[in-house]
Design goal:
The protein has 13 helices and eleven strands. It is α/β, with parallel strands linked by helices. It is elongated. 46% of the residues are buried.
C-alpha cells in the first residue's frame, strides 16, 4: 500500500508524565483524519534513534491503553544540543545522519516531544530543511512561548504531596525540614509546590537567598510558638554571595561544594545557627514518575490534537503552546534557546509574600 503521509515521532530528554498521553493524542487524531493513509514511525530513544536509524512501524493498537502510563513507550535519551555539530565517538556526523534517516524513512514530518535542548535541536533540523512540529514537555515549565508545559502539574502534585507528608513528621518532632524540589535552573516547580504545600520559606534560583534572612525567619517562627519550619528549596537555589560572582568563579565554587546538593548546606547552616534539628528530603526523580494527573491528561491531549492539526495543515516549523488557556502554534525560531524563568514580580510570588512566605531575600 502507498501511504500518503508518513510521520516520524520521537521523545527526547528527561522523561515526564504526559508523554504517552500526548503521543496517543497525536496518533489518534492522525488515524481519525487519514485512516489507512497515514503511517506513523516511532523513532527509538529520541534523537539517538534518528541518528542511528533505530525505529519501528507503529500500529493503531500501539497507542491504546497508554493514556495513564508514565514514561514513554518510545524510549528517550539526552543528546546535548551543544554536541549536535560534533562528530560522535562512532565518527558519525549527527546532523547529516538525522537528515539522511529522515529521507530514508521517507518522512513527511517529524514530531518531537521535548524540553529546551530538544526544541533547540528541532529548530536546527527545521533550519536544515526538515518538516518539524514540536510539543512542550518538561516538569520544569521553563519553555519559552508557552504558559504551561505538560508534566509540570503532575510533578507539582507529587512535590506537594511530599511537603504535605513532611508536615506531620516536622510538627511531631519540632524539626526544620527542607524539601528539595527539581526544576533545573528555574523555580516554577518549587514555587507552585511550595505555595500548595504551605511551605514557610521558598528558595528559588531567580531570587538568590541571604542565609541570615532564612535563619531569621526560622527563629521568628520558633519565637512565635511554632516548633517546626518547612522550606521548599529548588535544586538550583543559590546564595546571594554565589550569585554575585562572575560566571566562571561561580561554576568553580559550585563544583567545589562539599555537600551532595545545596539543601544540605542550607540545613547545616540553619542547624548551627538555631540549634534546631534540620533534615533534608529529596524526592528527586520520583517527581517525574507515574501517571499524568487529570490536568496533564487534558493538556497533553489538547497539545497532541493541535500538533496533528498542524501536520494536517502542513504548518511545519512550530511548537504547540498554551497562551491564556488557548492552544496556539509558536514558531520554533522564536522560542528555541530561550529560558522561561520565574519573573520575580509575578503574581504568584506577590501572593506568597502577602501570605508571609519568605523567599530569603
Ligand atoms: O528537566 C527535567 C529534570 O528532571 C530537571 O528538573 C532535573 O534537573 C534534570 O531533569 C535531571 O536530569 P537527569 O534525569 O538527567 O538526572
Amino acid at each position: 500500500m502507498i501511504f500518503m503521509k508518513r510521520v516520524g515521532i520521537l521523545t527526547s530528554g528527561g522523561d515526564c508524565q504526559g508523554l504517552n498521553s500526548t503521543i496517543r493524542a497525536v496518533a489518534k487524531t492522525l488515524y481519525n483524519h487519514y485512516g489507512d493513509e497515514v503511517e506513523i514511525i516511532g523513532i527509538i530513544d529520541g534523537y539517538r534513534g534518528l541518528i542511528y536509524g533505530e525505529h519501528r512501524k507503529m500500529k493503531p493498537e500501539n497507542f491504546s491503553g497508554i493514556l495513564t502510563m508514565g514514561g514513554t513507550i518510545l524510549g528517550t535519551s539526552r543528546q546535548p544540543f551543544k554536541l549536535m555539530r560534533v562528530i560522535d565517538e562512532n565518527s558519525v556526523d549527527k546532523v547529516a545522519a538525522m537528515k539522511e534517516n529522515y529521507k530514508k524513512l521517507n518522512l513527511d514530518c517529524l514530531v518531537v516531544l521535548g524540553g529546551n535542548g530538544t526544541q533547540k535541536t528541532a529548530n536546527l533540523l527545521r533550519e536544515e530543511g526538515l518538516n518539524v512540529v514540536s510539543l512542550p514537555k518538561t516538569i520544569d515549565n521553563d519553555l519559552w512561548g508557552t504558559d504551561k508545559t505538560f508534566g509540570f502539574q503532575s510533578a507539582v502534585d507529587i512535590a506537594t504531596n511530599v511537603i504535605d507528608c513532611i508536615h506531620s513528621t516536622a510538627t511531631s518532632h519540632g524539626r526544620v525540614f527542607i524539601v528539595e524540589v527539581m526544576g533545573h535552573k528555574v523555580g516554577w516547580l518549587t514555587l507552585y509546590a511550595g505555595i500548595a504545600g504551605g511551605a514557610d520559606i521558598i528558595l528559588i534560583p531567580e531570587i538568590p537567598y541571604d542565609i541570615e534572612s532564612v535563619i531569621k525567619t526560622v527563629k521568628a517562627r520558633t519565637a512565635s510558638g511554632k516548633n517546626f519550619s518547612i522550606l521548599a528549596v529548588a535544586e538550583g537555589a543559590i546564595s546571594k554571595e554565589l550569585a554575585a560572582l562572575p560566571k566562571k568563579q561561580k561554576k568553580a565554587a559550585m563544583s567545589q561544594m562539599k555537600y551532595p546538593s545545596i539543601s544540605y548546606k542550607i540545613a547545616e547552616e540553619i542547624e548551627q545557627a538555631t540549634g534546631q534539628e534540620t533534615r533534608v528530603t529529596v524526592p528527586g526523580h520520583f517527581q517525574r514518575g507515574g501517571s499524568p494527573d487529570p490536568y496533564d491528561r487534558v493538556l497533553s491531549t489538547r497539545f497532541g490534537v493541535a500538533a496533528a492539526e498542524l501536520i494536517i495543515k502542513k504548518k511545519y516549523g512550530n511548537m504547540v503552546a498554551l497562551k491564556n488557556n488557548k492552544v496556539v502554534a509558536v514558531p520554533l525560531a522564536d522560542i528555541a534557546g530561550k529560558l522561561k524563568t520565574v519573573p520575580v514580580d509575578c503574581e504568584e510570588i506577590k501572593t506568597a509574600k502577602m501570605m508571609g512566605i519568605s523567599f530569603g531575600d
